[in-house]
Design a protein that fits this description.
mainly alpha; 215 residues; Tetracycline Repressor, domain 2; single chain
Length: 215
């Protein structure tokens, strides 16, 4: 069950969702490092034993929070794209969608740094479990990347980019906006003024759009 609202109490039979809500609050406050099952149980008002009936440990709870954070990131991107005005010119409309999705991505990172970090954390596997790096196919694709890749493919289809370059273009674009987001949240760019941050974002987005090869 996905977290639907934050709160410190729960209705009978809905303890799992209450624990998720508390864990999401913990991540929003301080990133994935703050997500601890015992602390989530304390916030809800139940014993750790009760919490362990729903989660086998911190790793499972953190993976649930990560999935929630990724959904929130994708939703922020889609809201940003929905606010972008359309255009009669197909190329311009496609460019605007790519730009809006990227702005939504960076905006979520800046406004929700704790959840953004949680979206890309790597929970430790349970003792004796196979390392996630040994089976990368089990990791579901991140919806945020899917949105960006599809928008770039639509833009590239209107231009001269070769079909065999589109996947690489999507990965490069994601690397650009993800790297910028990390620099703004935890790196040296976090000290930029509002104007400086806006200039950095717009320069990166212009590079992403031009890299799609539409013009």
């Amino acid at each position: 069950m996905a977290a639907t609202s934050a709160g410190k109490t729960y209705h009978h039979g809905d303890l799992r969702n209450a624990l998720i809500c508390a864990a999401v609050d913990l991540a929003a406050d301080g990133g994935p490092e703050r997500v601890v099952l015992r602390e989530a149980a304390r916030r809800v008002g139940v014993s750790p034993t009760a919490a362990y009936r729903h989660f086998d440990g911190r790793g499972e709870l953190l993976r649930t929070v990560r999935a929630h954070a990724r959904r929130e990131l994708a939703a922020a991107m889609e809201r940003a794209a929905a606010r972008e005005p359309g255009a009669d010119d197909a190329v311009l409309a496609a460019e605007r969608r790519v730009t809006a999705l990227c702005r939504g991505y960076v905006g979520f990172a800046v406004e929700q740094p704790g959840l953004y970090r949680a979206a890309f954390c790597v929970p430790r596997p349970a003792p004796g479990a196979e390392c996630s790096q040994d089976r990368p196919a089990a990791e579901p694709e991140v919806r945020a990347f899917t949105l960006l890749r599809e928008a770039l493919e639509a833009l590239a289809a209107l231009g001269a980019a070769r079909p065999d370059t589109r996947t690489a273009t999507g990965a490069a674009a994601w690397s650009a906006v993800h790297g910028l987001s990390l620099l703004l949240v935890d790196g040296p760019l976090r000290c930029l003024s509002v104007q400086g941050r806006s200039l950095a974002v717009e320069a990166t987005l212009a590079m992403v759009v031009s890299g799609a090869g539409a013009r």
